[in-house]
Amino acid sequence: MDLTFERGDASSPRGHALVYFESPSGDEVWATYLIVLPITVDVSKYVPPFLMNQMGGDGPTDLSSFAFPPSPEKIPGRDRLDELAAMRDDDVINGGSLDGDDVTSAMMRVNDLLQGYARLCADSRSASIAAGPQAAEAAGELGVNEVLYGLMSESDRLAELTKLIGRLRFAVDGNEDSLVRETEDEIGSLSRHLPDGVQVPKMVAAVKAADERGALLADLYLKRSFHLLHEAFTELGSVERQIESLEAEGAQGAGG
User: Fold this and answer.
1) What is the 3-state secondary structure (H, E, C) of 194-217?
2) pTM, to two decimals
3) Which of 111, 138, 198, 210 is the most buried (most CB within 10 A)?
4) What is the pLDDT of residue 57?
């Protein structure tokens, strides 16, 4: 079945997703959590033999994905779900309309969504492997970074951004295209955990301009971000004026 992603990308699912449903009346929201494990677990190793015998030969012997709770639970609303998804960097999937009190039907719907999500994860993993070991390794590294960025404080994220901007400047100056692409990917991953006011795209463009004005602008954008974080509004005003002057200078140069 087709899955409707409202956060995340069906072509590269994260492996963990919040799925929500709305009641037919639209005044209640129900949700569950899907997890696709990166490692397949042989359940038979952890289940007592007498239980395995009761499960029979057709019982589940591996656990690669699951939904919990198996039937969606009612949550305060979409706003709360969006907050959780942003905090944990989860995919968000719209499961459609559902009668949360009909547990049997709800469990079947969740299972269908879980199977569809697991297939997308498997397809994404296969595509990464087909792209070559270097691409798979890079994707894995970015995935680890995503988790780390989610655990950092905003101050630590800005410090990490400062480091990455410095690396990007080094790569641009040295015409190291592969390092430029790699660093841009890391900056893009980090930017998903930063507020829009940080203006990461402008920062990257300024560095890649590879001129003195661009270098000054990149430094000013970083200073602006730290002043916003620390609510240093006096210093912020001064930096804003310098940015406006340099941006105007660039616009005049482009127009000329």
Assistant:
1) CCHHHCHHHHHHHHHCCCHHHHHH
2) 0.48
3) 198
4) 46
